[in-house]
Amino acid sequence: MMNLTDGMQRMAGPGLAVLLASLAGHGVAVADQAKIDDALAAAWPGMAEDAQVVDWEGNVLKEGSNGYTCLPTPPSMTGTAPMCLDEAWQAWGQAWQNREPFEAESMGIAYMLAGDEGASNVDPYAEGPTDDNEWIEEGPHLMLIAPAALLEAYPTDPHNGGPYVMWQGTDYQHLMVPVGARD
Predict the structure, then answer these.
(1) pLDDT digits (tens, 9 = 90+) for 109-155
(2) % of the chain beyond a pLDDT of 70
(3) What is the pLDDT of residue 175?
């Protein structure tokens, strides 16, 4: 005759495995949702609903249909820096990541409405502030890429109270447009 305790242990084994698998899957969903929420913090509300969200490994976390791809804060950063990019900015980002030449042929718009943890205003690859790299921590902002001639009229001083050109003279120059207070 089977002991009740033995039967419960045999049933608990598969049941526990199913429960743990379920919780593990739920944990992944929670982690993905956190990345989605972080990424969409960069967007204005009307854009967020139909924006695609992709993590930094290229995994699509949320399908979208409005032409914008949002990314959560890069895993290498400790602060906040999610962004939403249109097609032109995605091409720019690919060139920047691979240190390839880039020339803007049209206007492109990127949203960083959650702000960022900082970047050099003069060096596209600076990893932290130095005495000469004009480190700036920008609050909520837009970023515009455009043909170089359209950016010539803008200042490079991030403290001028308005838009300014970041990374002037490089293939990755763009117009920063503050839309809120800096942190």
Answers:
(1) 999 999 998 999 999 999 899 999 999 999 999 999 999 999 999 99
(2) 84
(3) 98
b vs e for 60-79, b when ≥16 Cβ sit within 10 Å of the residue's Cβ? ebbebeeebbbbbbeeeeee
Q: Find the DSSP H helices in the chain.
A: 4-40, 45-48, 87-97, 148-151
| Residue 92, phi-psi category: left (phi > 0), alpha (psi -120 to 50), beta (remainder) | alpha
CA distance 71 to 39: 5
Q: Is-contact 71 39, C-beta < 8 A?
A: yes
Per residue in 12-60, pLDDT (tens digit) is 444 333 333 333 444 457 889 999 999 999 999 899 999 999 999 999 9
**pTM of the prediction?**
0.81
Nearest alpha-carbon partner for 110 in 95, 91, 97: 91
DSSP-derived secondary structure letter, 72: P
The rounded distance, in Å, linking the Cα atoms of 33 and 38 is: 8
CB atoms within 10 A of CB 120: 19
CA–CA separation, 118 and 113 (whole Å): 14
Find the distance separating the first CA and the last CA of the chain, reported in whole Å. 71
